Amino acid sequence: LSDGIARVLCTAVGADRVLLHGFINKTQRTPRDDLRTAQQRRNEVQA
């Protein structure tokens, strides 16, 4: 891994956990593009 914080965004679907998006970040703030990607994937999984 490069320098930074590894993050994985996930959601719960019933008893399962689904990993939506993973990325390396150098700041505390999560970029909007990464949040949008995770939200779009969450919507696909929960549809």
Give an overview of the whole structure.
- With 47 residues, the chain is an alpha+beta fold.
- It has one domain (5-46).
- It has 1 helix and 2 strands, in the order E-E-H.
- The chain has one helix at residues 32-46, and strands at 5-13, 16-25.
- It has a two-stranded antiparallel sheet.
- A hairpin with a 2-residue loop joins strand 1 (5-13) and strand 2 (16-25).
- The mean pLDDT is 93.
Main sheet makeup: 2 strands, antiparallel
How far apart the termini lie comes to: 33 Å
Widest β-sheet, arrangement of strands: 1-2
Tally of strands: 2
Approximate helicity band: 25-40%
Annotation field: number of helices: 1
Structural class, by secondary structure, is: alpha+beta
Q: What is the succession of H and E elements? A: EEH
The value of Rg in angstroms is 12 Å
What is the count of structural domains?
1
Parts with pLDDT < 50 across at least 5 consecutive residues: none
Q: Mean pLDDT, rounded to whole units?
A: 93
The percentage of residues in β strands lies in 35-45%
Shape: elongated
Pfam families: Gp49 (PF05973)
InterPro entries: HigB-like
Protein name: Protein containing DUF891
Name its key features.
single chain, 47 residues, alpha+beta, 1 helix, elongated, Protein containing DUF891, HigB-like
How would you summarize the topology of this molecule?
Layout: E1 5-13, E2 16-25, H1 32-46
Antiparallel strand pairs: 1-2
